[in-house]
Design goal:
Blueprint: E1 5-6, E2 21-22, E3 29-30, E4 34-35, H1 48-66, E5 81-85, E6 97-101, E7 107-109, H2 112-116
Antiparallel strand pairs: 1-4, 2-3, 5-6, 6-7
Bound molecules: zinc ion.
Zinc ion binds near residues 47 and 50.
């Protein structure tokens, strides 16, 4: 069994739901949710509300800490490549997997292996094949 962790939403305990209620009748309290897995804020928040609460409190500080975008990021033909798969060509394996350039509209076939193992295009859209 995986480890339980607490929702990181700073106001999680203030939302009044049955599963947050703890303690005996004379000492009732609401607690932050604790689960083995969360779906929001990259697995750190129990709900969209808690995710927004986190960002409202910590978001600006996180941006300042990790660095804000201070000049435009640019998509050029060098980093405009994306992997694609053609669902309409049944029967013909050749050309089903390809890389596509959003700016030049160029299309280059790649192998299924290149498509599957992420070797054809870098995370920032540069072609490696
Ligand atoms: Zn929460």
């Amino acid at each position: 069994m995986s480890q339980l962790k607490y929702c990181q939403g700073p106001k999680c305990h203030t939302y009044d739901t049955k599963d947050r209620k703890k303690g005996p009748k004379d000492n009732k309290r609401n607690e932050t949710r604790r689960r083995s897995h969360f779906y929001y804020l990259d697995g750190n928040c129990c709900s969209m509300q808690c995710m927004y609460d986190w960002f409202n409190v910590y978001g600006s500080r996180a941006l300042d800490h990790f660095g804000r975008i201070t000049q435009p990021k640019v998509l050029t033909q060098d980093n405009a490549w994306r992997k694609r798969y053609d669902w309409n060509r049944d029967g013909n394996e050749l050309g089903r997997h390809y890389v596509y350039n959003y700016l030049t509209e160029e299309r280059r076939p790649i192998t299924e292996q290149q498509y599957d193992n992420d070797s054809a295009v870098t995370d920032d859209g540069r072609l490696t094949v």
